[in-house]
Amino acid sequence: AQKITQTQPGMFVQEKEAVTLDCTYDTSDPSYGLFWYKQPSSGEMIFLIYQGSYDQQNATEGRYSLNFQKARKSANLVISASQLGDSAMYFCAMREAGFNKFYFGSGTKLNVKP
Amino acid sequence: DAGVIQSPRHEVTEMGQEVTLRCKPISGHNSLFWYRQTMMRGLELLIYFNNNVPIDDSGMPEDRFSAKMPNASFSTLKIQPSEPRDSAVYFCASSLRENTGELFFGEGSRLTVL
Question: Nearest C-alpha of chain B: how many angstroms from A30?
């Protein structure tokens, strides 16, 4: 079974609008972390946001927020007020605390239209 | 603070040659990961180390690949002999296991095997 599933290979959003990138995960480890990374066309991997499995509140970092629904095992990334510079590949990842192993999804390519 | 440093940034070699990729993790980090990224297969975890000890090398494609971490500040990924299908971007990432554990990525080594 896939540990991380991102079902949207590509998405378009109008500049200044909000967009949600989907991510579901699968684990039996009670302690885990969920991460989102951005990879622009230049290729570097940029850490955006983190959510711990025991965190009660959804994580937020500036225009990024993580919609964490533990029972559904989903960790969707919400980008508010999209900007042209948000056009990039976005990866969801999970770290299982037991072995400190990271799993990445296949990514979602976001295009922000002016 | 210096981030994860990888070298070389670009490598072009001929089939059958030995390739060595190098990584210097962030000082104080105790986990190190090697990933390979291609269009077809996305981000693949090759191997990771905790406290310089290899924990899981199940992602290493075959015996032509080997990785070492002789000390906390240096790791190598070696391919011998190289083949055209090894062409990819190879990322090294490090993390501090006891914290949120997010991965800090190097800029990647782009390998082209002719």
Answer: 15
Residue A16, sorted as left (phi over 0), alpha (psi -120 to 50) or beta, turns out to be left
Tens digit of pLDDT for each residue in A76-114?
Answer: 999 999 999 999 999 999 998 877 788 999 999 999 999
Selecting from B35, B89, B97 the residue whose C-beta is nearest the C-beta of A100 gives B97
Q: Do B101 and A107 touch (CB under 8 A)?
A: no
Substitution target in B35, B58, B103 with the highest count of A β-carbons within 10 Å is B103
Positive or negative: CA dihedral B8, A91, B33, B3: positive
Measured CA to CA, the distance from residue B114 to residue B99 in angstroms comes to 42
Closest CA–CA distance from residue A17 to any residue of chain B (Å): 28
User: Could you report the per-residue pLDDT of A9-66, keeping only the tens digit for each?
Assistant: 999 999 999 999 999 999 998 999 999 999 999 999 999 999 999 999 999 999 999 9
Beta bridge partners of A32: A96
Three state DSSP letters for B19-34: EEEEEECCCCCCEEEE
